[in-house]
Amino acid sequence: MIQLIEHFALDGQFSLAAVVVTTILCTLGITLLVLRLLYALEIERGLKYAAFNLLQNLPFVRSLIQIRKRRVVAGIADSTNSQKTRINTTLTQQGETVDVIMKECIRLRNSDSKHTNMMSDSQVFELCTKVYSLFAHTNPLHGDAFSSVCHMEAEIVSIAASMLGGKSDDDICGNLTSGGTESILSAIRTSRDYMRSTHGINRPEMIAAVSAHAAIYKAADYYNIKLILIGTDDCGRLSIPELKRKLNRNVILVYASAPSYPHGVIDSVENIAKCIEPWGCCLHVDACLGGFILPFARNVGPRNEEYPMYDFKIPQVTSMSVDTHKYGCAQKGSSVVLYKNRDLRKFQYTAVSSWTGGMYISPSQAGSRSGGLIAQTWAALKYFGREGYAKQAANILAASHRLRQQISKISSLEILGVDITMVVAWKSNDKDVDIYALNDVLGEMGWHLSVLHSPPALHLCITTANIPTLDVLISDLNAAVKRIKSGEYDVQNARAPIYGMANLMSNTNIVNDLLKDIQDVMDRS
């Protein structure tokens, strides 16, 4: 309760009578105690959400929330505006020279974070850039005019399928998309339409673990699908007992991660497949992160035990997503969505023959697509080859293993997730070390880490570009923990209170509305 009051405190801006304040605070305290009991009893999430909604709709609380939100957004706006230049709102009267434009581009690029690159090989970057420029004018929507990039796309899809359990005589097929989110959206919409056509399901539901990628929320919202979220087991994998309880005749798809974005955990896809077999629903495996690492993990991983099977070798897997712009080392945005067969993929297509523009067919959610992105993806695959990706996987998994070991030696921190993948996540097990404050201190040191909730945690996604810096990270982690435990830290533009509020008030519309306000600030348009 004290934490919540601190988050919403108005620094004496209200002059209410003491008795009124006391009454309100007691009401809030009782409500929060009830919420704690609800959590302790593990009552259904819907009831807990309802209790939070009841609390946030109290007039006094609603007023406090709105004021607090405005203060948070204003603080982020000040921080953002101090780092960025003025936005030009109109075209210049006359065009600028190439030299002037390039100087401005370099100046803007230098303001970006230096710690988020997926690759360290400058040669492949230059190759992809050159190849993109050769095919920048092409558009695979017009395959008769640009057969070159259509050929390249077919090869990319076939290579991805062969890496993910496909055989030469399989019917596995797919398309390139703009990124992992589009691949996931495409697979879910296709599965919905397929299940409606073949099983007559008009009230579709899909099941996913709370660790599944946020794209599932987009899909549920866009395509009017009821999203059923289930918990994870002690290893961080989708809970099989809970899945069995939630399966029903309206479920069109179960979503599995290989691995999950938050903690790098590989769901037990084989056990999920056994559960859904009697129901006949689709099974999507999100391998956006793992698609170019896990195929080599069995041979070059830092431990002897087998990684769980997750791909098309499992007959019940109907679709997969893999990001070529992550560990495939192509430039943004490039991803592949794969389907078990062509009959399923046809439900991704949009065919129109009744408009005045003639016959129209589009294989994906986008109409026109960049042939340049397809070409540079193809070039990256050709550049690395199987040996190149195997070497990358070996280096990343070995680095992940070392980082996990080093973090485990810091007594205030605890590793999350059991699988050694490219993601290393950790939380605080020390009441004197706020994980969000730790993130603020590390941010001041130049680190850009991903912030997690439920439980509060941080993670680093290991790439070939950041492997050389991991020893520095361990040193900085130790220093940051000591600094926080001493109480001698004061970080400018600290975000810990914001993350703390989000974690306390998770699963309500409060934080969602706050995020939308922050996005408005970031867009600045």
UniProtKB/TrEMBL annotation:
The keyword Hydrolase does not apply. The keyword RNA-binding does not apply. Its EC number is 4.1.2.27. GO terms for cellular component: endoplasmic reticulum membrane. This is sphinganine-1-phosphate aldolase. GO terms for biological process: carboxylic acid metabolic process; sphingolipid catabolic process. It is found in: Endoplasmic reticulum membrane. Keywords: Endoplasmic reticulum, Lipid metabolism, Lyase, Membrane, Pyridoxal phosphate, Sphingolipid metabolism, Transmembrane, Transmembrane helix. PANTHER family: PTHR42735, SPHINGOSINE-1-PHOSPHATE LYASE 1. It is a single-pass membrane protein. GO terms for molecular function: pyridoxal phosphate binding; sphinganine-1-phosphate aldolase activity. Belongs to the group II decarboxylase family. Sphingosine-1-phosphate lyase subfamily. Its cofactor is pyridoxal 5'-phosphate. Pathway: Lipid metabolism; sphingolipid metabolism; Sphingolipid metabolism. The modification N6-(pyridoxal phosphate)lysine is found at residue 326. The chain crosses the membrane at residues 14-39.
